[in-house]
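Researcher: Good morning. I'm working through a list of sequences from a screen, and I'd like to move beyond sequence-only analysis. For each chain I'm collecting a predicted structure so we can compare shapes side by side. This is the next one on the list. No need for commentary yet; just the structure.
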Amino acid sequence: MARSLLRQLEQIRRSATYDDAVAGVNTSAVAEPTVSGSLEEDMNVIRTLIHDLKGGSGSWNWYDALETYTDPSNTVADKSATLYNFSGNTLDANTIILAVTDDGVAGAGYTVSGTSTGLLRTITTGYADTTDTRGLPIFLSVTNSGTYYDEGGNDNVCRIDVLDVTQDAEMQDGSGNIIYAKFYDGADYAGSGDGTDVYVKFFANDVETDLSTVDPAPTAVKFVYPQRKILSEMQEWEWLRTDFVSSWEGDVELVEDISNLWSFTGASDGDSDAGPWTNTGSYYLLDGDPSDLKTAIDDINDGVGDRSYTEDNYLTDGETITTSLDALDQAIKDNADAITFSAGDKYVESVAAPITVNTLHTLPAAITAGGGYTPNSTPGQEGKNMDVYIDGQLLAADTGANGANADRDYGETTASGITFRFNVQIGRNITYVVRT
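Model: Good morning. Structure tokens for this chain:
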């Protein structure tokens, strides 16, 4: 009996020396020796198994505390990595950010006008907080410094995409900045707040804004915003590759956009060539029959030129082609009219009977048939609408209305007759050049 007692005391004492890296621990010969063994050996085998169960690499001892993991539904108290905590909760340590589309009843969106700076939305999802980060991300008004915050995690996921329902696209202000929104506590904007509603405030370029400069003016908008879910809460139908409009967009929306691109470009599924192009013969802008849109656009730009003009007489650098052609059209017409006016119509009369001085002489019928010409007595421009030559010598028209001053070669008395201030003999030639 004494010897047996001594052996037991010896075994218990020696168990204070441990080894948590027993070789061959997973074999029965080591774990359960049948010939020899001791309590110390058994304890070392158990220590090694605990070490392996913890998954330590070498720096972890069998007696070190268990590691912990963060539960998104309670970020204050980290959970120990125990089998109990893992059981049924293997996905709870991870969350996914989903794109939630809020487009109202039957996709009609929410009514807005040019003066709208935001609107109160009934969203029963609770706000994220410092304990549970899964809720709706809210911008912290007190830290309004231009950065997006999540009340729970401060992780920059609070930008809300705003889409014009009619255009099904994001909107821009007059400066080209994208209109977006941030979520604010509904209780600060005549609402009830957490768990009931949220205020969607419009921004552009980090500045609060309204929709007055959006063109075309929107009448209804919808929202796409982020929301976290624990992976174990995910429904099978939610496992789409989701993304927002500016940074995430759902697959269905993506397919629709690709289809629109095909329609806009004239392409189709599987196309490897941007063509076929029409009018690719010599001297057309696309005579090189390019195989991609970039080359085609470059060809068009090269053919049109940079719209920079040397003298800018009638055109302005950088203006549209339509504006340039309109300016040229008007200038050419004005010049053509001036040339026509300057050239006039020529008529020659052979004097068959003497024309007596200061006697009204009726103009040839060809001149008066169209209503004649318009006498002009403007000082310095007398006779500007008709030149009169006798035997090739240009005469000067009298001054005064209808040539009343009778101080030069002839007076433009009426639209159908003139009065010479000298006698014109038979056989002389009178040439008229009439400008209407």
